[in-house]
Specification:
By secondary structure, the protein is an alpha/beta fold. It has one domain: Aldolase class I (TIM Barrel), CATH 3.20.20. Helices cover 48% and strands 17% of the residues. It is built from twelve helices and twelve strands. Strands 1, 2, 3, 4, 5, 6, 9, 11 and 12 form a nine-stranded parallel beta sheet that branches. A three-stranded mixed beta sheet has the order 8-7-10, with no helix packed on it. A hairpin with a 2-residue loop joins β7 and β8. α2 packs parallel to α4 and α7 packs parallel to α8. It is globular and about 60 Å long.
Length: 299
Amino acid sequence: MAFVTSKEIMTDAYRNNYGIGAFAVHNLEILEAVVRQAEKLAAPIILQTTPGTVKYLGIDRAVQMIKATAEKAKIPIALHLDHGDSFETAMKCLRAGYTSIMIDGSHLPFEENIELVKRVVAAAKPMGVPVEAELGTIGGVEDDLEVSEEYAMFTQPSDAKTFVEETDIDFFAPAFGTAHGLYKKEPKLRFDLLEQINKMVDVPIVMHGASGVPDVSVMEALKYGVAKVNFSTELKVVFVEALRKVLSEDPDVSDPRKYFVPAMDEVSKVVAQKISLLGSANKGGSGLDHNRYLERSNR
């Protein structure tokens, strides 16, 4: 259908209290599994790569692979840089054709984070590419980024307001109790904090570290401005578990199709469950007006 920006599909979700699934894709097989299932459910999606995945695939190959898939798909698809680790990385992805950029300066002092984000926004906005940024520190592990629970910090609502207004970002990722990677126990999410933040900012909110968060908690988050929900670990876990199962049952198998197809099927099952949970099924049809987001940005 279309290779679009994340803002084009997130604005409708933000207005109508559903979520867009943002799925991490690390190889062709996971990419195909995600898109195949999203097409079946007519759901708009965001495909994400971290700097680590960019290094693994190669930036040009990643863009060409995802863009070719998106242009043939029957749903709107955006390509997002997740946790951009520097201005240079963000600019490389912007120039290569990414349609959504996250610059992560959450590890920096408040003012330095603002200045970094403002530089990326100044470069991306003239190109029509939306920017996501994070304030507060989300715990866990994402590629080479590791934050222990003791150093994870919640986002303060007053800081969130200042941050969003000064940076002019399109989407805001606050820290309210989620973490990257596998949870050792059920996370205690601060919905009271999320509710306050939502009242203080006028942009869609992003939920990082949603893999393993109970469904009821994800649904609760959608009530407070969350319009983009990130999934990565769950996809990787089911993919590798399926591979192990096939290879353990048939150690002599050598045809990649024999072990990749079952792994892809398991990824598709997770994607279907997340799309159903977020309420985004049947939101990606031809009736989606790709210009509606301009109404909000021009207010």
